[in-house]
Design brief:
Largest sheet: 8 strands, parallel, barrel
Mean pLDDT: 91
Distance between the termini: 41 Å
Number of helices: 13
Helix content: 25-40%
């Protein structure tokens, strides 16, 4: 079904071409990675292997080849978020997510939608919504239907609500959505609207630091229970798993196991292991890299311990170090499974050893 490209449900406006405001990556460093020979990750794994991408990444032939060879599923890194899609006047643009979706179709890759409702992003169009024309709840529904409906039949799933739990684990985050539609009700509505827009896509609640902050994980688990009790059509739970090399051993495995207790599908949704963010350790780089590889292996082993029907996907937040958001934060960081030149690292080998 074709849906209008506006919050108000007005007739579609023509899409305007515009340059993408993409963060520039640091130049690729010459890596000293020893030669490691591995089969493609997607050929080893008995579940979908995902990676985050931006539309501009797909114009790099070497990176595009690496993505097609290694991954079976794509998550738009930011171009399916409200910051990209919703213009200030309330109309929508889809050039970049359409390009990612087209690449996925061409190469027979899955497409995972990220993300519909996020406390950190609102739009001036929602903030100054004229409720004399349309209610806030209807505009919210129009937005979700337009985005999910556009990729109906292609997107295998969606992060419907992203990062809903407060960082300290004390309840849920405040947002425009919670203020206007209710702290809990806005989440239920989001899942209901997404299900209406695409009855076949798997719908996820996604969050981060669940491994690092046990209290936050406990609050996240209680939220899942409440959503299920309320009849929200939630199909899965996502743990981003952005961790540092000093992450306590065992916490990733504990998190994945606890998320699996509901019988829902589990998505390791944004995996990377930062060296630069490790704190309080007097370790040299080689030791940090060994710890990084151990965490890659722990995550893979824990994911494999889930029943096969619960393994939705394991998604890396990028494949090459040169494209990582963490490398843009610190050029010395190397958090991903492949180096700047696209060669597999010890971390990739540790991951592959647990899933193959």
């Amino acid at each position: 079904m074709t849906l209008p490209d506006s919050l108000y449900g007005l007739s579609r406006r023509s899409l305007l071409g515009s340059a993408l405001a993409l963060g520039a990556c640091q130049p690729a460093a010459q890596s000293q990675t020893p030669a490691i020979n591995l089969p493609p990750l997607k050929a080893i794994a008995p579940f979908p292997v995902g990676t985050a991408v931006q539309a501009v990444h797909l114009t790099d032939p070497a990176l595009a080849r690496l993505i097609v060879a290694q991954a079976s599923q794509l998550t738009p890194e930011w171009e399916m978020k409200m910051e990209y899609i919703v213009r200030d006047d309330g109309t929508f643009r889809f050039e970049a997510p359409d390009a990612i979706a087209a690449f996925a179709r061409t190469h027979r890759l899955g497409l995972f939608g990220h993300t519909l409702v996020w406390y950190a992003q609102t739009s001036p169009a929602f903030e100054r919504l004229d409720e004399g024309r349309v209610s806030f709840a209807q505009a919210y529904r129009n937005y979700i239907h337009a985005v999910v409906g556009r990729y109906r039949g292609q997107a295998v799933g969606w992060d419907v609500v992203n990062e809903a739990v407060a960082e300290d684990g004390e309840g849920w985050r405040d947002s425009l959505w919670s203020q206007r539609l209710g702290a809990f009700d806005h989440m239920v509505l989001a899942f209901q609207n997404a299900r209406e827009a695409d009855p076949t896509a798997r719908l996820f609640l996604n969050d981060y630091n669940l491994e690092w902050i046990p209290k936050k994980r406990a609050t996240f688990l209680r939220l899942v229970e409440r959503l299920l009790a309320a009849g929200a059509p939630i199909d899965g739970v996502g743990t981003q798993t952005h961790v540092a090399a000093d992450q306590a051993p065992g916490e990733i495995a504990r998190t994945i196991a606890e998320l699996g207790q509901f019988g829902l599908q589990v998505h390791v949704s944004e995996f990377d292991v930062s060296l630069s963010r490790a704190q309080g350790l007097r370790l040299n780089r080689a030791e940090l890299e060994r710890q990084q590889a151990a965490l890659y292996g722990e995550a893979a082993e824990a994911f494999m311990a889930l029943p096969p029907r619960q393994r939705f996907a394991f998604s890396f937040w990028g494949l090459r170090d040169s494209e990582s958001w963490l490398k843009r934060e610190d050029a010395r960081d190397t958090p991903l499974p492949f180096d700047d030149l696209g060669r597999p690292k010890a971390a990739a080998a540790a991951w592959a050893a647990q899933v193959g």
